[in-house]
Every structure is written in structure tokens, then in C-alpha cells.
Design goal:
7-stranded antiparallel sheet; 25 strands; alpha+beta; Jelly Rolls; Rossmann fold; 622 residues
Length: 622
């Protein structure tokens, strides 16, 4: 697909009741609001707001979102300023849809028990066996029978947690559901989304989320509880380091008030509690057409979107199942103009391209009989070259696997190394490697492409890089890290970062993030961690044998990036990424119960020899 020309974008404005939208569209003038307490099969009433067009000259499809975050404003006389998928405009409202918003059971105005990442019940034996797919089925039945002016077709959309609902709701889907778009969805919050990655606990994200979201409240209610915790300063690295062992988060801050945090701490391994919340194995009998949308630099849910696409593709032949991947942060296709992330520029307004050419065409085609959306199976934006590419399947058939070996001289080669090389470092839990140069109390989205020179010179970060590339190198698909390591401890984390090193004559640009010089910029393209004791099984952890060379092999999230001629490929290896990831005591134990004195120094080695050739393997498009 040709490179996109630069185009103007109307500035985005947040959807806040009572504030004019960017397009000055008056929702109240064009839509009538209704509120329903829809009974589910177990008798629980789920609160739902429905907005129907005042123009009765034609019939309209339903477009629905389920959310745990409140469908406010409540009351039939209170209207939002925007209807349809977010993005600061009313493009869907202008097309004409019946919009449906629902508080999921147990949240805000809906009755029942709320469950984080509701487990799917495959074998429903009675009216009390309820999950997201049954709630959606019952909701659709009610809407078809009780709302006038519809054309009998239903679509679902949602970003992040709402994206999980958009995926879970189409299992054993109601025949009226014709289209669904899970966007930045969660799929497995132990393996790769939000709170864990390959067994490593994402401390900063979990802490930020649960200290405000998971406090118990009585339903129905129009008000959630507010987070009252205040950081003592503006340095999360210092705060969590001084807090000490992980259990101190609950002992000193949450104090048992966050129910799901308690469950986190009770289930350190990938047991039935987590497996039941993995939605991908259950993505069967999906009769709707699905378009999953993800961002290459999604810091929250880098795993879920691709996994959901692959699960639907495997189990549901015959439906239209598509994947769209752009150069976006979490929800960036409607929450930004998509021209850049931090210091990395994409040379076009990729979010405007998305809104003009993708989502509206998808739903209009399947719900309103509109023209063919003309979308490929996979539409991917390749950073570096900053161009869209179309693929007929994912991973792309044209991507051939290529292995990049780390050498004992700090290089990277496609030839297997010879000799007995290794690199060694001391990992000290009292001085963990920071995940970002810009430590604050929050977690920036820009860290996903941040310049990695801030760790330059640290003895606990191993660095490998190629010579200057003489031709473009386009990586496409999952990256498999195959490390051979040894340690003096019995457990260890291993972080692998794939980095694009810009030339020393790369031009500067204005409005730089953190005022970082662009010549020699080290753009992190992909970074991922594995907790070493889960190297062979997430369910059954195993200790390392001190001094014994051990293979640690795991898959990083997918990549769509071109390392341009004149750039270099770099790989960094380290054993901490703090406070993004909690510290590993480097002893084989239950980290959630570890004491301060359990955190010890350990010496790690990565081997780069003929017998133990550490490497990454990834698809390359010639």
C-alpha cells in the first residue's frame, strides 16, 4: 500500500457531557435516550442505555459497547456529547445507528457479582451458568423484542477491557450479531496482558489500576469509589524500592481492600484461576465477522489482540476475521492523531487514516449493507519505513525466519558463533535497572519507543549490535528469544530488548520528547521479560541449578518494523526492569510471600558459544 500523504486532522476533544465536540454535533437533537434494566437468564438485571435516532424514515442496526467503567451520564434527560466509537467526533452517529451502552453485571447501575475477566463457561447446564457470551445473547434478545426501528443486525465494539467484552461476547454468538471489533483487548492477564508477562508481575500497571478500580462498592450505584492514595513524592522507582518486598504493597497500602489484588497474591502460578480467565481457547462458534485492532506500541495489552485474532482464525473457518495493526499506543487510533509516539515520527496522521478508511467501512458493510470494506486479512503499518502493508494472512507468508546470533565480541551475526564465549553481570535487587529515563509516579506510554541510551554504561545491561546496515531489514511477526544462561541463584528474570539504532547524522526535529538528541537515537522497538522459573511451564515453576547452563526460550510480541539502511540492529539483555516489573529475589520461592532479606545479589551469564548460541529468530521480508 502506498505511503500515506500528510493530511490535516481536526483536533481531538475528549467526550465530556456538556462540552461541545470537535464537530459540533448535537446528540440530543438527533437521538432519543432510553434506559432499561434488562433481565438476564439468572434474574440479574443489567443496566443499559439505548439511543435511538429521531429520524424514523428508515431502520437502523444496533452498535453496542459493554463496560466496567460506567455508562454515565445516567438519566434519560442526560446525554453524552459523542455516540459511537471514541475519537472526538460523531461520525457513527451521523451515519445512523441505534447505540447501546451497558454496565457489565456487578458494576455501577447493574446488579450481580462483578468478576474480573469473567471466566467463560463452555458447558452451561442451567440458568445460573452465566458469562459474557450468555449476557450478550440475552441482551440481544431483549433489544430485538423491545426496541423499535431496528434492522435486526447487531455490532459490538470496545477498547481495552471493553475490547475483552467485544471478544467474549461473540462466543456462541447470537445470530443477529453480524460484526464485532475487539480493540486493544485483554486475552490472558497472566501470560501477556496488563498484569503479567511470561510469569513476571507488572507491578506498576497493576498498582495503578487496582488502587482505584477494584474497591468494593454496593450496586446499583452511579458513583464508584475514588482512589485516595497519594504518592509521597514523584519517583515511583524510589517509592517501590523503599517499600521493599512485594507483600508490603498489600500490608501497607491496599490493606486487603482490593479483592482482585488479593487473588493475584494467592495465585502466583498459572493455575486454574488464571487459565479460566484466558479467553482464547473458548473462541468457538463465532458467527460474527471480526476486526481486531491493535497498536504496535501498546504498553497495556500487547498480547491480547493478536492472540484473539489467531484463536478466532483457528476455530472459526468461514467468517471474515481481520487484524489491523498501526503504530499506536493503547487505543491510539482514536486517542491521538497517530503522527508520532514520543520522539519517533510516522510521517502521516495514521489515526485519521484509520477513521476514514477502516472502522466505519467495516461496520457499515456488515450492519447496513454498505459497500465492500475492501480490507485485507491483515493491514499493518511498518514503522521505520512508515508505510502500510497488506498481508493475506498473519504471520505474513512472505516473512522467512532468520536467526540473529549474539557474539562474544558484542556483535550480532547471522552465522552461528564459534568458541566458548559468554558475558557476565551482577544483578542487584537493591539497584535494579530502571525501565525508563523519565521516572514518575505514572507509567508513560512513550517508554515503548524510548531512547535506550539512558542505560548506557550500566554493567548489568549486556549490549550487542550489528555493523551499519547496508540495506533495509524488515522484520515481521513474532520474535523468538533463545537464550542460554547460567546463574549463581536459583531464579532470575531475563529482559530482551530489540532496538533500532539511528545514524549519527540523523536530523533533529522540533518538540522532542524529554529533549533527547536524535543522532544515535536507540529506539526500543520491542521489549519483553520472562520470569526464569517459568521457562518450561507457567503452571509448574522450576529452579535453576546454580552454575548450570540452561536454555530460556520465549516469544516476544509481534513486530512490524524496518531497520533502514544506515541504521543498526541492537539487542540488550538485562535482569530487571523496575518498577515496571517487580524485583526477582533471585531465589526460588513464592515472590508474593518473600521477605526483604530474601532479595539477594546474583551473577548471571549469557552464553554466546558454538554449544550454547544465544539468539533471536524473527520473520524477515526481503
Amino acid at each position: 500500500m502506498q505511503q500515506l500523504a500528510k493530511i490535516l486532522l481536526i483536533p481531538l476533544v475528549l467526550m465530556v457531557a456538556g462540552v461541545a465536540n470537535a464537530d459540533d454535533y448535537d446528540v440530543r437533537e438527533h437521538y432519543t435516550k432510553h434506559e432499561y434494566a434488562i433481565p438476564m437468564r439468572d434474574g440479574t438485571k443489567v443496566f443499559t442505555a439505548v439511543y435511538t435516532p429521531k429520524d424514523k424514515s428508515r431502520e437502523y442496526p444496533f452498535l453496542m459497547v459493554k463496560t466496567p467503567y460506567s455508562i454515565s451520564p445516567y438519566g434519560v434527560d442526560n446525554y453524552p456529547t459523542q455516540l459511537g466509537p471514541s475519537g472526538g467526533d460523531n461520525r457513527f452517529a451521523k451515519e445512523g445507528y441505534i447505540f447501546v451502552y451497558q454496565d457489565v453485571r456487578g458494576r455501577y447501575m447493574s446488579e450481580g457479582e462483578f468478576k474480573n475477566m469473567t471466566p467463560h463457561i463452555a458447558d452451561k447446564k442451567g440458568p445460573n451458568d452465566v458469562d459474557e457470551s450468555s449476557d450478550m445473547y440475552d441482551t440481544v434478545e431483549y433489544l430485538l423484542e423491545n426496541v423499535k426501528g431496528h434492522n435486526g443486525k447487531v455490532g459490538i465494539f470496545g477498547i481495552s477491557y471493553r475490547g475483552f467484552y467485544a471478544a467474549a461476547s461473540v462466543i456462541d454468538s447470537h445470530p443477529a450479531i453480524k460484526a464485532s471489533s475487539p480493540q486493544a483487548p485483554m486475552a490472558d492477564i497472566y501470560y501477556g496482558d496488563d498484569f503479567h508477562h511470561r510469569g513476571a508481575f507488572f507491578l506498576l500497571d497493576a498498582f495503578r489500576f487496582f488502587r482505584g478500580f477494584d474497591q468494593e462498592h454496593n450496586n446499583p450505584t452511579k458513583q464508584g469509589k475514588r482512589d485516595t492514595f497519594q504518592f509521597p513524592g514523584n519517583d515511583a522507582y524510589k517509592f517501590f524500592l523503599e517499600l521493599g518486598a512485594l507483600h508490603n504493597v498489600n500490608d501497607k497500602i491496599f490493606k486487603g481492600e482490593s479483592q482482585f489484588w488479593n487473588r493475584l497474591m494467592e495465585h502466583p502460578n498459572y493455575d486454574e484461576f488464571w487459565q479460566s480467565r484466558h479467553i482464547v481457547p473458548h473462541l468457538k462458534n463465532v458467527n460474527a465477522n471480526v476486526m481486531t485492532v491493535i497498536g504496535s506500541f501498546d504498553a497495556e495489552d500487547s498480547y491480547g489482540g493478536t492472540a484473539i485474532y489467531e484463536g478466532i482464525e483457528k476455530n472459526n473457518p468461514g467468517i471474515d476475521n481481520m487484524l489491523v495493526r498501526g503504530p499506536w499506543f493503547h487505543g491510539g487510533w482514536v486517542r491521538s492523531d497517530g503522527t508520532n509516539l514520543g520522539n519517533v515520527r510516522f510521517n502521516s496522521q495514521t489515526s485519521k487514516f484509520y477513521k476514514e478508511n477502516i472502522d466505519l467501512k467495516f461496520f457499515n458493510h456488515y450492519l447496513k449493507g454498505g459497500p465492500d470494506h475492501e480490507l485485507p486479512e491483515m493491514l499493518a503499518f511498518y514503522t521505520g519505513e512508515n508505510e502500510w502493508r497488506e498481508h493475506s494472512e498473519w504471520p505474513a507468508a512472505e516473512a522467512e525466519p532468520k536467526t540473529f546470533y549474539m557474539t562474544d565480541t558484542g556483535g550480532i551475526s547471522n552465522d552461528k558463533p564459534t568458541g566458548d564465549g559468554y558475558d557476565e553481570w551482577v544483578s542487584d535487587p537493591a539497584n535494579p535497572v530502571p525501565y525508563t529515563r523519565a521516572i514518575t509516579n505514572g507509567r508513560s506510554r512513550e517508554y515503548m519507543v524510548e531512547d535506550q541510551r539512558f542505560v548506557e554504561g550500566r554493567p548489568d545491561v549486556m549490549v550487542y549490535e550489528t555493523e551499519v546496515l547496508t540495506e533495509d531489514l524488515t522484520m515481521s511477526g513474532p520474535i523468538v528469544a533463545d537464550l542460554y544462561v547460567s546463574t549463581t541463584g536459583t531464579d532470575a528474570d531475563f529482559v530482551v530488548k530489540v532496538i533500532d539504532v539511528f545514524p549519527n547524522d540523523f536530523p533533529e526535529h522540533e518538540n522532542k520528547y524529554m529533549d533527547v538528541p536524535m543522532p544515535g537515537y536507540q529506539m526500543m522497538v520491542r521489549g519483553e521479560v520472562i520470569r526464569g522459573k517459568y521457562r518450561n511451564s507457567m503452571e509448574t515453576p522450576e529452579p535453576f541449578t546454580p552454575g548450570e547452563v540452561t536454555q530460556v526460550k520465549f516469544t516476544l510480541p509481534d513486530i512490524t518494523h524496518t531497520f533502514k539502511q544506515g541504521h543498526k540492529l541492537m539487542i540488550q539483555i538485562q535482569s530487571s526492569w523496575f518498577p515496571l516489573v517487580d524485583r526477582n529475589p533471585q531465589q526460588f520461592l513464592n515472590i508474593y510471600e518473600a521477605k526483604d532479606e530474601d532479595y539477594i545479589k546474583a551473577t548471571h551469564q549469557i552464553h554466546t558459544s558454538d554449544e550454547y548460541p544465544s539468539s533471536i529468530t524473527v520473520g524477515v521480508i526481503e
